Amino acid sequence: MTASRVVQRLTVADVEPESWELSAPVGYRVERWIGATPEHLLVSVASTRRAIHDAPDTARDPEWTPELVRAAEAEDLAAGVEHRVVVAVEEATGLVVAFTDVQLYPDDFEHTVWHDTVVAPRHRARGLARFVKAHMLRWLLTDRPELERIDTGTAASNFPMIRVNERLGFVTAREVVVVSRSV
Ligand SMILES: CC(C)(COP(=O)(O)OP(=O)(O)OC[C@H]1O[C@@H](n2cnc3c(N)ncnc32)[C@H](O)[C@@H]1OP(=O)(O)O)[C@@H](O)C(=O)NCCC(=O)NCCS
Predict the structure, then answer these.
(1) Which residues belong to any copy of the N-acetyltransferase domain (predicted)?
(2) What is the CATH number of the domain that holds 153?
(3) Phi, psi of 82, deg, nearest 5
(4) Nearest CA among 101, 138, 137, 140 for reference residue 118
(5) Residue among 51, 32, 66 nearest 119 (CA)
(6) Are 131 and 105 in contact (CB under 8 A)?
(7) pTM for this one?
(8) Ligand 1 centroid vs 74 CA: distance in angstroms?
(9) Which residue's C-alpha comes closest to atom 17 of ligand 1?
(10) 117, 126, 152, 162: which to mutate for ligand 1, most atoms within 8 A of CB?
(11) Tens digit of pLDDT for each residue in 16-46?
(12) Span 119-134, mean pLDDT?
């Protein structure tokens, strides 16, 4: 199996942080945490995360459930990984509808890799992905001024995600073809 992927890089020193000063789209509010998901948001975090399968090439991503979210949190805790999450909550329902997370490793303060960003299908194309990622960037840079660069990999056909990252200051570092097979 082959998959074309784009690696995008944010070099903190090259970006104007003003481009991250975004207000929440009308009808939504931001929430954030390090480590454990607040219990009242757990079910909607898991269901929003399951929509990662709308992205190309995500066959190996888990089918997120509340139990799996808790298991991943426990793994991070045991490994000394700081797991930061930013979500958008729909005011009318109190449910999480947009999610993004970053893991910070204890032995690498200057660099990190950004993994998942997901918006529930009904809430897409309203600026929520850009909003939660911009909020994460402001939060990270406030607490971790030593962070110099962030890399993220996206399927080459995932134009909305690539576009969101570009608007935040990420530039395409390279395109790679990933070849894999089951053993
Ligand atoms: C990718 C995803 C997170 C984007 O979320 P979103 O809230 O809809 O994104 P935003 O509204 O902030 O921005 C979308 C941008 O993509 C653009 N866009 C949307 N569809 C597009 C398309 N088919 N081609 C090119 N650009 C497109 C929008 O115009 C917007 O750009 P703009 O700000 O310049 O107008 C969402 O579609 C999603 O959850 N997809 C499934 C999971 C996924 O692919 N996650 C990423 C892999 S980790």
Answers:
(1) 46-183
(2) 3.40.630.30
(3) -90, 115
(4) 101
(5) 51
(6) no
(7) 0.95
(8) 30
(9) 160
(10) 117
(11) 889 899 999 999 999 999 999 999 999 999 9
(12) 98
